[in-house]
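Q&A FORM
Asked by: J.P.
Topic: structure of Thiol:disulfide interchange protein

PROVIDED:
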Amino acid sequence: MRISSAIAATTIAILTCTAAQATEITGDELKKALQENPNVLIEAIKANKKAIFDIIKQAGLEEQASMQKEAEEAERKASADSFKNPLKPVIDDKTRIRGEKDAKYTLVEYSDFQCPYCASAHHTVKELRKRHGKELRFIYKHLPLPFHAQAMPAAQWLEAVAIQSPEKAWKFHDILFENQSKLGVDFFKKTAKDLGIDVEKCEKDAESQAVKDRIAADIEEAKQFGFNGTPGFLLNGVPVKGAYPIEHFEEIIKKLAATKAN
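REPLIED BY: S.T.
REPLY: Here is the structure written out as tokens.
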């Protein structure tokens, strides 16, 4: 927690002077007095615990609000800049695309199958695809977080399923997000089997270097774009950090349409 020098000075003054004694003193005088009599401050703190706690708490709240405002302003600026200079994820012949390949809008998600916010975002993406139909295509990329034990295995199994059937991989993707509490190798095997996937081959492919390299490439790309948590999105190159409500994405789409019209 950072506390401004002004607040700190005020706190010391409150602790070392009563209302009746309060007079104009210089900083040097106060410093000298405390150096010569350090116990005065200690006793003052003991006698005014609530006052000092309230001051520090208020300072912390003010600092937190200031930092949040700065972060929001920085994000707004980055978002505004990205309309002019959109971020460019790798999209090639090997990229799995859900929707029309020549769609007007491209939504790329960097996600973690075990992240509860990503499960919420899954429903947002589903609704966006429903609303915009052929005009929006969706691409899922991996950003499994290290503290989610099942996130990396789930990512590996998705890629393994995709080797056999890209279309069934999307079904696998949906089932995992809709059953987060069941994630684990046994559930991956059962789901793959129910989808008609060769489970034995899937197990081997999930541990293959090709699959691991693909996931690693997604993670590296996410980091380059400043995505450290999940979910992270790019909507025609405009970044969205977090599980924002659908209205946030709709606002970006409106701005993109207006920018193109101009």
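FOLLOW-UP: The chain has two domains: 5-84, 105-261.
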